[in-house]
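Lab meeting, item 3. Inverse folding demo.
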């Protein structure tokens, strides 16, 4: 079954495990996940539609929000096939190459989301600290270049991961602990030396998430410095209110991500379902909550939603 004389994997399939610990509640969990998918897909689609139709939202901040919504849809559609197959249709096996492709897209969209949040923090920094130069600094062309740069960076970082795994021999039981394919989970399967895989994974985490989070923090330190220079309390609160949605988006992305990393590295003795639950939070919370937060906090989006729901009577 395995050719140990070469370093090329001959494995053809991967088994994805859901939550066997809670078999009695499996249907309830599947229903909950389907509901979260529905909220994510519907919410982000509505955000895109409203930004397209509402001309007052044709601004850099909302262009970045559009990119974020497209990215969140990508996250949802990346995990949907295997989650449905393993949780709803009890078909846990997936092709090895399909698993690598899913791993690529999940991590690609994760790295892209980090870059988008950084770009949005730069948008808030310019809007608050240099409001007179906002339109000249964040032109449509520059926003497009920033979006393309974020995508290219994410692609270049994630592209080597499948090939670094393909070169290794697989001689263990090819069973993953999640119902989707993640790099930290996959590198536990090969029986060869995974040092390069681990080091490269750590490098891109530090160079992307680490650098992005530090720059986001720095932008908010500068924003806070500018806000404190405003004389009136009402003016300070009004200015900070423009950042609330973005701050929430940053927290619901980075807090689960850091929690997952901490559990993987320091929670070795934690029950298996803890690792699975933290990964579910990491992948499901941002795509579900982002459209809800921006719908609540953005007056134009909220007004358009009310108009769509209540009709012309509004």
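The presenter then showed the designed sequence:
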């Amino acid at each position: 079954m395995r050719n140990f004389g070469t370093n090329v994997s001959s494995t053809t399939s991967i088994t994805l495990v859901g939550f066997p610990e809670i078999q009695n509640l499996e249907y309830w969990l599947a229903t909950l996940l389907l509901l979260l998918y529905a909220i994510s897909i519907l919410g982000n689609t509505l955000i895109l539609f409203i930004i397209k139709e509402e001309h007052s939202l044709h601004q850099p901040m909302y262009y970045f929000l559009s990119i974020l919504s497209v990215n969140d849809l990508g996250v949802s559609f990346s995990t949907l096939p295997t989650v449905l197959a393993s949780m709803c249709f009890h078909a846990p096996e997936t092709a090895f190459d399909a698993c690598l492709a899913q791993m690529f897209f999940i991590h690609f969209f994760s790295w892209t989301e980090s870059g988008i949040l950084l770009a949005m923090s730069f948008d808030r920094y310019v809007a608050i600290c240099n409001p007179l130069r906002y339109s000249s600094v964040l032109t449509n062309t520059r926003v497009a270049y920033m979006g393309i740069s974020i995508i290219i960076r994410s692609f270049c970082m994630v592209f080597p991961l499948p090939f670094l795994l393909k070169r290794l021999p697989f001689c263990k039981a090819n069973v993953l602990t999640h119902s989707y394919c993640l790099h930290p989970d996959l590198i536990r399967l090969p029986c060869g030396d995974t040092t390069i895989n681990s080091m490269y994974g750590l490098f891109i985490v530090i160079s992307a998430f680490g650098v992005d989070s530090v720059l986001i923090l720095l932008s908010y330190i500068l924003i806070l410095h500018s806000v404190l220079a405003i004389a009136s309390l009402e003016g300070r609160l009004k200015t900070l209110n423009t950042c609330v949605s973005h701050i929430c988006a940053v927290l619901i992305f980075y807090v689960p991500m850091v929690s997952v990393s901490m559990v993987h590295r320091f929670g070795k003795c934690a029950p298996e379902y803890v690792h699975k639950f933290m990964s579910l939070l990491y992948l499901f919370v941002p795509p579900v909550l982002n459209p809800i937060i921006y719908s609540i906090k953005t007056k134009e989006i909220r007004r358009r939603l009310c108009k769509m729901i209540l009709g012309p009577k509004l």
